[in-house]
Amino acid sequence: AQKVTQAQTEISVVEKEDVTLDCVYETRDTTYYLFWYKQPPSGELVFLIRRNSFDEQNEISGRYSWNFQKSTSSFNFTITASQVVDSAVYFCALVRGNQGAQKLVFGQGTRLTINP
Amino acid sequence: EPEVTQTPSHQVTQMGQEVILHCVPISNHLYFYWYRQILGQKVEFLVSFYNNEISEKSEIFDDQFSVERPDGSNFTLKIRSTKLEDSAMYFCASRPNRVVDYGYTFGSGTRLTVV
Prior knowledge:
The complex is a heterodimer. By secondary structure, chain A is an all-beta fold. Chain A is 0% helix and 53% strand. By secondary structure, chain B is an all-beta fold.
């Protein structure tokens, strides 16, 4: 079975600080995909990134970066120079395989609060 | 950019009543899902649907729940006799054949309040 653990329930930082959200996953599959979603106060799920198990390259998108390490089964998310608009709940998720009706398995989420 | 559309955005119902939540997935997607999120908690899988039948369902998806794709475009979730604990945000999602092609697209959710 697949499992995603986000050990940090809540994080609060002051604007402009860097912050890292941790994600640890469990799966026995060799092919899988990892995701990060943002859930702002309005409630929708906003897709941030998808990463497949064969691509361990780190990715940077503006102030966002992701560090994927298979050796530690982690897919951590860093926000550099955080802004108040980054305040949201962030979910890490995992899906096994590439085809079939595979479901996304979500972590518990990390509530990030950026204080001005 | 194609969207998954969910209606209504908010529904209030009395305990014991039937509710139907509506979703219009992306037209060329093949796999359809319902997820539930109780306030302040994680997003939980309810059911997946493919080729006009249920592929997988979770323990939450008991006999009170059912899904349908009645006309090839809509994808509905029915709760026959709502309970207070059914109050949650319900998300519909769809996906093309391969995860690598695009991944999962979620609707903006229906907030169900059972009173």
